[in-house]
Amino acid sequence: MTPEQILEGLKEVFATVKPKMDLSKVGMDSSLVMDLGVDSLSMLLMSLAIEQKFGFQFKTMQTFHTVREVVDYIAEQI
């Protein structure tokens, strides 16, 4: 999968977890907390949805600050 395909899949995850999120603001350099308003509960739900969407399980606790970090991590796992 290309980073762009992963980003599109991630936008689907955001739409499910945070339906009111403005997906036009989601870019590779978007801050999860500052730009997109992801809080700790949203992060947990997002992690579960990412596992289902992309078919892997997080093996350790991960800390992500930007969308790019999430995309890069997913790319490493699939």
Distance N to C terminus: 8 Å
Spans of at least 5 consecutive residues whose pLDDT stays below 50 are: none
Shape field: globular
Round the mean pLDDT to the nearest integer and report it.
94
Strand residue content: under 5%
State the share of residues found in helices, binned by percent.
Answer: 40-55%
The CATH homologous superfamily corresponds to: ACP-like
Tally of helical runs:
3
Task: Please provide the ordered H/E string of secondary-structure elements.
Answer: HHH
Largest sheet: none
Oligomer: single chain
Domains counted in the coordinates: how many? Answer: 1
CATH class: Mainly Alpha
Task: Summarize, please.
By secondary structure, this protein is mainly alpha-helical.
Question: How would you sum up this structure, described in words?
Answer:
- The structure is a single chain.
- The chain is globular and about 25 Å long.
- Helices cover 53% and strands 0% of the residues.
- The protein has helices at residues 3-17, 40-54, 67-77.
- The model has no long low-confidence stretch (mean pLDDT 94).
- It is mainly alpha-helical and 78 residues long.
- The longest helix is centred in the first third of the chain and has 15 residues, at 3-17.
- It has a single domain (3-77), classed as ACP-like (Non-ribosomal Peptide Synthetase Peptidyl Carrier Protein, Chain A, Orthogonal Bundle).
